[in-house]
């Protein structure tokens, strides 16, 4: 009986760890390609005329008030965001760069983009 209980505990732990590893693997498959798109070596070296057209955009979900953080929604995920100027909720922003888990944004100005 004690061996059966020990085996049940072992199987339970194995299922929990296996499920966690499978979830981590699936998250990485969907998450890392997104990160690779944001992680540019040095975006300032790009041509300024074309870089404005290629920067991804998101929507502010929690107001960004510098020097504090706000929140944006980009590609179905929520990210902590900072900006140089205050940006209210529901504003479309351009993603300038990513440092760790913090996204640096600026307001999207359609007139300047064209």
UniProtKB/TrEMBL annotation:
Residues 57-107 form the NfeD-like C-terminal domain. It comes from the Bacteria. GO terms for molecular function: peptidase activity. InterPro entries: NA-bd_OB-fold, NfeD-like_C. GO terms for biological process: proteolysis. The chain crosses the membrane at residues 6-39. Keywords: Hydrolase, Membrane, Protease, Transmembrane, Transmembrane helix. The keyword Protease applies. This is Membrane protein implicated in regulation of membrane protease activity.
């Amino acid at each position: 009986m004690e061996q059966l209980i020990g085996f049940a505990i072992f199987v339970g732990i194995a299922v929990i760890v296996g499920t966690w590893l499978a979830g981590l693997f699936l998250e990485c498959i969907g998450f890392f390609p997104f990160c690779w798109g944001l992680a540019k070596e040095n975006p300032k070296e790009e041509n300024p005329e074309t870089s404005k057209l290629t920067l991804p955009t998101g929507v502010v979900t929690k107001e960004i008030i510098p020097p504090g953080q706000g929140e944006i929604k980009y590609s179905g995920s929520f990210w902590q965001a900072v900006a140089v100027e205050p940006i209210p909720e529901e504003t479309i922003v351009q993603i300038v760069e990513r440092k760790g888990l913090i996204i640096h944004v600026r307001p999207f100005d359609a007139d300047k983009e064209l």
